[in-house]
Each structure stands twice: as C-alpha cells, then as structure tokens.
C-alpha cells in the first residue's frame, strides 16, 4: 500500500479484493454479472498506475448489526448461510425463487465483503482520512430489498452504508446523504429503504421505457417523490428509451440533479455507480462514454467538500466498465483537466422527461421551477448526426423476465428523426419566435422558429425541418374516436397518445406527436357486428383482432368507448393501429396525413371511406357514426372485401387469446358498461359470429 507523500494531493481510497470473485454462477454458466467484471477494472487501473496514486484498502466483512439496519433477520440469515455445505443441494432451487439471482459457495462471503467494503471506505471519507474513494465491489446492491435478493444484488451495500453513517457514526457529522444512482436500472431497493427519510436524498436516473425496462415496476416513475417527511427527497429520472448518452445525462445533471444538490447541501455523496449505461453495454442500450462519466462525477465534486464514494453496481461490458472506472479515478485524483467532447444533442424525449421531473418536484426544490433556458428548448435542440442515420429498422433489445434478450422493433424513428416534434404553429402568436418566458406546455404550443415559418411559406405542403404543416392544421379539429377493441381499456388506448406499453400488451407504442389527454370519454353502442379475425398479432400474440362489420345491422349492437381527440392524434392512432409507424415514421411526417380534413366530409357522406394509403394495414376503412357535440364520430375497421376473405378462409380467423379477452373485458367493466359476466358473454358471442 503506497500512500501519496504530497499532502496537497487528493487522497483517494481504492478498494478491491479477489475474494469477491468467488461469487459466481454455479455450473460455470456464463452470466453478465461475473467475476471478470471487477478483475477487468482492477487490471486496467493497475496497468495505468492508478493504485500507486491511491490509498489502497482491503475488504472487510460487514457486521450483521449494520446490515440489519436495512435487511430483515430472515434475509441476513439466508445470505449468511446460503454458501454453507448444508445448502449445497438446495442452493440452485432457492436462487430460482428470486428474480435474477444465483448463489454458490462464494456468495455469502462476497456479499458480506461488498457491503463491508463500502462501509469501510465511506467511514474513512466521512472522517476526512480520505477525500474520496472507489469501492470495486460485487455482488452489486441497489436492487436488493429489505427481505429479498434481486437483480444480481444480495445486500444493498449503499443503503447499509448510508444507515451506518447516519446511525452508527453520528460524531462524524454526516446528517444529509445524497445517493446518486447512475446505474442504468432503477435502484428500487435503495429507494424503498429511504422513501420516508429526508436524511437521504435518493436520485436515480435509469431506463424506464414506460415501465417495461428492468425491474419493470412503477417504482421507477418520476411520480415517486418520497412520502411523509421524505416527500421531495426521492428523485427519479426515467428515460423513455435507450440510446441516452453523455448529452442526456449532462442535461439532467445541469437541469435537475445539480440545482437540487446545491440546495440540499449534502454532507457526503454516495454514488451507486453502475456502468451499464455505458456505450456497448449488453444490457443497457445506452451510450455514455468514459468522458461522460468523468463529467458527471466532476460536476458532483463541488458538493459535500468533495466527499464522494463510488460503489460499483452493474456494468457488463468489461472494456467499457474498466475504461469508465479509470476515467472516474482520474477525476477523483484531480490530475489533468478533462479532455473530450460531447458528440450529440440530447434526445427530444430527454427534454420532456426533464420537464416532467421538474414539474413534479418544483414545490420541494424552488430551483426547479425556474424555466429551462431557451437554448435548451429550441435553438440547440437538434438531433445528432448519429441518431439521424438510425434507420427505421433499428432494433433495441429488452430483457424479458428470464433475463434473456428479446428483440422488439424500434418505434422511435418518428421521435428521433423529428426532435422538434413539440413545435406547432400557434396562430395567436403567428410569426413570433419563442421567447425565454414562453415555456412550451401541452396547452401552449411553442411557436416555430422564423426559419421554419419562412420555409413553409415557400413550400406550403412540405415537411420542413420536422414541421409538417398538416399537423398544426389538424391539431385544431377534434373528432370522437370510437374504439370497440382493446382500446376500450383506457390505459391501453393512452399508449397510442402518450406512448408506452401496458400490462398484457406486447407492443411498445411511440404515441402521438401531441401527447395531450383526450378531452372527453363517453360510451355508446352502434348497430354493427363485432367480430374477431386473424390468428396472430404482434401486440397480442396468438389471438384475434377485433373488427366492426363495416355495414350496419339493426339487430346487433357493439359497445364503443369514444375518446375526444384531435384529428392529428387520430392520424397518429391510425398509424400505430396499422403498425405502420416503423416503416412510415419518416414519410408520415413528410407527406400528407392519412385522414385529412377534406376526408371527413367524404366519410360523413358515404358512412365509410377506404384509405388507399392504409391498404397494407388491417384498419384501412374509416367508418362514420354521426355526431356527438357537433363533432364527427369515427372509427377504423377492415374492408368488406376482407370480410369475404375471412369468411372464405383465405385470411386466417381466430377468436381472442386469453390476454386479449381479459383486456377487452377489463375495458368494458372498468368503463362501467356491463358486468364481467355480461362482458365475457358479449365477447364470446362476437368471437363466434362473422
Ligand atoms: C445491478 C444490475 C441488473 C439486473 C438485470 C436482471 N442489475 N435482468 O445492473
Ligand atoms: Zn444495472
């Protein structure tokens, strides 16, 4: 152990212990959370001479009484004993009862060492013996709940440490702790442990993907702000998608984390430092570079007198995590100034997420109620070239419950190609450029830049710079969209407006460009036969798709849940319902709407209108059912000729799957139309008719 002689030099603790490598997936199966992770980091630091410039510490097992501040006795007992001989035959089965967990003979010791090591370095930093420290530990901790191992985590190392400092070492003067969790996954365990505790400000930035990204619960939502005395002391920044990188993280640091940290004034900062948001990580799908991590860390060093402890969490690309930790170590050592540059602009969704988070928390943190600077909103808000080049066929991988990878089609091309999508022409302010005191909200659309206006005057029908003129025109007309299938279930339908995915549906929706809520919801019945056809769909797997017979029949009735939305939104629903948003993301923005204002007159007159532009989709036929509040009632279904094909067997036919049935019933029951039994009878009846 070589202590640096220069007293002005920053004292950085560095902890690594080979014993933590003994925790490994049994039977030698490959697993992303494997011993090579910390070995790779250590080797990289050694090869760059980092340990010689740090205070190298050895690991220590945590004492049970410290672990007990966050975990139940039952959980402590399990982790303590799981590696013992008497568990040999049961270990694998017990592990399988948890979510994403394995155990072997080395697990108990590694878990105690990981927790004890984070305590050890943090105590030294709190005391002032060290300025800062990095604990290269595993297993990670932030998913571990009070009574449950989860997500590769056994003990919650960081939470145990925070409690240790607050409760066991009051003399060190640590009264307020900021936990920054930059692992790509939400730190559910840590959040829960301090949810009502204002002494710990928990901040987590993570992929959320509307609740579908691991750990895939609502806990990671920005609505989770803490409770009781802890209200305002829990901050979640939930990314809507992968591909987030340096620019997105730095934007969140500048516009959310740092203003709050400034006002909270923590006594120490514990970083749940996962590096699975790093570029090339196999689980994360984000692209933070080592330079990005170094910036994030540097920006935190101005707080808590630089008392910062980094505890490793996730991170599964050996090279990426090693390079990232190295970059962070250099920052803590305060050697050379940072070199690098941010290559991209933040995603449009990042802007939206930051607005949501700030809105939710501004009563607790007044610094968040000031408007974001204008340049963040518009002038610099351009896609980076890399993102522009993403083809519509790009795919993002998401994990399923078994931890295996499933591939879903990217539905974000619209968003990425048109980052100025929030921009609409506001007639009241026509021609006026946005000013810094004009914050765009759902109700006050941003005015287009002059540039775009002028260009549009020259080419009135063309899509210019992501501003198709038809959108602003159709955003001023409202219609009733009558849904008779799964969209009767409101949360399901809202995905087509807000974007996202709900329980039971396999599809991730991009949403409408205008994400404002429907202006009204009413129920009605119409004299059309409901029926089910097709055998397999992307959204529902095996099972049918609901259609309305295009021709009315006085002897039948179909329930319909009607949403009052703009014609712009109806177009976006049409696009998504026809699964055309992937191929069509770009051309849709550029060309004409699928259903234009003039089409409304035609459909009203003929009661139905077959859209040529939608002939590749299932719902190319627009039906008209009269008016409500002077607004047309429209829906979409198949053509009469397709009905003939279903009848003749030319097109596959099938009733709804169980999931689909449940959602249909749920829509009808939650919409208070009929009882569960009546709903089931209604759907079964439809499923057996043509
Ligand atoms: C610590 C961490 C990820 C768990 C993913 C489980 N856990 N599929 O990154
Ligand atoms: Zn993670």
Short description:
Helix content is 34%, strand content 16%. With 690 residues, the protein is α/β, with parallel strands linked by helices. α1 (36-47) packs across α11 (318-333) and α10 packs parallel to α11 (318-333).
How do the helices and strands line up, and which of them pair or pack?
Layout: E1 12-15, H1 36-47, H2 50-53, E2 55-57, H3 64-67, H4 73-81, H5 91-96, H6 107-127, E3 132-135, H7 157-168, E4 177-181, H8 188-193, E5 200-207, E6 234-239, H9 246-264, E7 268-273, H10 290-300, E8 308-312, H11 318-333, H12 348-361, H13 374-377, H14 385-389, E9 395-399, E10 405-409, H15 413-417, H16 450-458, H17 469-474, E11 478-483, H18 490-498, E12 520-526, E13 528-533, E14 536-537, E15 541-542, E16 545-552, E17 558-566, H19 567-577, H20 581-590, H21 597-606, E18 608-610, E19 621-628, E20 631-637, H22 640-648, H23 658-670, H24 676-687
Parallel strand pairs: 1-2, 1-3, 3-8, 4-5, 4-7, 5-6, 7-8, 11-20
Antiparallel strand pairs: 9-10, 11-17, 12-17, 13-16, 14-15, 18-19, 19-20
Helix pairs in contact: 1-11, 6-7, 9-10, 9-12, 10-11, 23-24
The protein binds N-(4-aminobutyl)acetamide and zinc ion (ZN).
